[in-house]
Design a protein that fits this description.
Length: 121
């Protein structure tokens, strides 16, 4: 089995190109069969709410909704910082498929002893 991948994203739709790049990396890993986790903090926590990750970042960029759908289809998971999520007064009933609230300890538990390739945006 290919090694795990963790993509850490702190930015939300205030920088849609950065979000698009992070999702492209995550989708690539997940579609190639790597167990993939996106760890979302700060404004990126909003991306895990239903209907938020939409739009197109640039001419020629894929739509964010398309990338979210591909990531879900490939089995990608999200771990959403509960401190950041609660600080923004977001409602967990609107979390998208594959998203769970959890901090650094659950992230390290998911990574386990075999380690993971990491990317940070």
């Amino acid at each position: 089995m290919p090694g795990k991948a963790v993509i850490s994203l702190t930015t939300g739709l205030e920088d849609p190109e950065r979000v698009t790049v992070a999702f492209l990396v995550a989708v690539g890993a997940a579609e190639l069969g790597r167990p993939t986790l996106m760890f979302l903090t700060k404004e990126a926590t909003r991306l895990t709410l239903d209907g938020v990750a939409t739009g197109v970042a640039c001419d020629g960029c894929p739509a964010l909704a398309e990338l979210v759908a591909r990531y879900a289809k490939a089995g990608g998971r999200y771990l959403v910082c509960p401190i950041c999520f609660d600080a923004r007064k977001l409602d967990k009933q609107y979390l998208i498929e594959g998203a769970d609230l959890g901090g650094t300890v659950p992230m390290w538990q998911w990574i386990g002893d075999e380690g993971a390739t990491t990317f940070s945006y």
